[in-house]
From TrEMBL:
Residues noted as binding a divalent metal cation 1 in the record, renumbered to the chain: D100, D111, E239
Subunit note: Monomer.
Protein's recorded name: Methionine aminopeptidase
Cited CDD domains: MetAP1
């Protein structure tokens, strides 16, 4: 069932979105060569706790995960595309990292992901990040009350594939609200004019991921959580929680 949110409920979700943005800012500030992913998770835990919020990811156990999720953020480095575990791995010069965070306030969840480099960046990584951000922006732009769900995926794949990058459609976006993952599924790639009608009060997480190598294959790492690009190429994930309103899309996971 698809839950339609009131303006008051969307305002409540904006509060959790601000916590997600604050976590991302703090993690980005802390991230540097030599800093461990575990340390970034600790920083995230502190920000969530100090905001009086809850961590949506901690203990979350979907069917694809080998065990309940052990952290509050996903830290996906280089060839890890999604759900990278916050391990003792220490960031190296030029690493590309995606930080995915979910938080809830008063029972309302928000979910967002940012990607950046540490140390001396590679030009091709900066381009990959830029195109991923443009891919997400195109998807958000298509999240309008006069549109259909397929318009979002079509807008995103036009940008991501147009730049020659690989994409996958098994892990896409989702409705979000009282639960982190609600209906409907939000495909990263779809046909325009197809799928459910978008309407005011629908709140969705839009989350494309791109693989630099241009191939679409990925595999599940032996750690039981990390989803990696099949060719080992670098990958990027970006995400916002977005409310569809009469006036168009409103991003909830901004500072
Ligand atoms: N943004 C990711 C998603 O919606 C968050 C996964 S949460 C985790 O799939 F706990 F499963 F990692
Ligand atoms: Co999500």
């Amino acid at each position: 069932m698809i839950e339609i949110k009131t303006a008051g409920e969307i305002a409540a979700m904006r509060e959790s979105g601000k916590v997600v943005a604050a976590v991302q800012a703090a993690v980005r500030q802390e991230a540097a060569v030599g800093v461990s992913l575990k340390r970034l998770d600790e920083v995230a835990r502190t920000v969530i706790a100090e905001a009086g919020a809850g961590a949506s990811f901690l203990g979350y156990h979907p069917s694809f995960g080998a065990m309940p999720y052990p952290g509050v953020i996903c830290t996906s480095v280089n060839g890890v595309m999604l759900h990278g575990l916050p391990t003792p791995y220490r960031l190296r010069d030029g690493d590309l990292i995606s930080v995915d965070c979910g938080a809830y306030v008063d029972g309302w969840h928000a979910d967002g992901t940012v990607s950046f480099t540490v140390g001396q960046p590679r030009a091709e990584d900066l381009k990959l990040i830029r195109v991923a951000e443009e891919t997400l922006a195109a998807g958000i732009e298509a999240a309008r009350p006069d549109g259909r769900m397929g318009d979002i995926g079509h807008a995103m794949s036009t940008v991501g594939r147009g730049a020659g990058y690989g994409m996958q459609n098994d892990f896409g976006g989702h409705g979000i609200g009282r639960a982190m993952h609600e209906s409907p599924f939000v495909p990263n790639e779809a046909r325009p004019g197809r799928g459910i009608r978008l309407r005011p009060g629908l709140v969705i997480a839009i989350e494309p991921s791109l693989m630099a190598g241009g191939h679409d294959r990925y595999y599940m790492d032996s750690d039981g959580w990390s989803v990696c690009s099949g060719d080992g190429s670098r990958s990027v994930h970006v995400e916002h929680t977005v409310a569809i309103t009469e006036d168009g899309p409103v991003i909830l996971t901004l500072p």
